[in-house]
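Changelog note: in this version the structure field was regenerated for every chain. One regenerated record is shown below for reference.
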Amino acid sequence: MSCCSEYNCPVDTTLKMIGGKYKSLILWHLIGSTLRFGELRKLIPQATPKMLTQQLRELEENNLISRTVYPVVPPKVEYSLTDLGRSIRPILSAMYAWGNEYLVNNGIEANCSMTVIESSNNNIKHSE
């Protein structure tokens, strides 16, 4: 008989939190930035508004991002990383490096809105 009926795997937990279709891209673009929905749409044009909204809600539910609504007309909503969201940066950087190396080794050019620049704090994102 097992002492625990619940399955809790650290890697599965991480993937559940950041594994959505656009979640990693959203998190990446929010590193060091506070962005509005329209800005995220421009950075991730392949995401439909409905899908982007769903991914943002899930990230907010998982406490990885915060959503700030300002009481102005028209409504102003900004998204930024929480402390927990900022803690995912090394994981995203490692995923970027691993994926980029894989692409290079297979003669494939990276083609996405994620790019890396050097900073005093190791690698950080830079969105163009």
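Spot check on this record: Strands lie at 35-36, 65-70, 76-81, 116-119, 122-125. Residues 10-106 form a domain with the Arc Repressor Mutant, subunit A fold (CATH 1.10.10.10).
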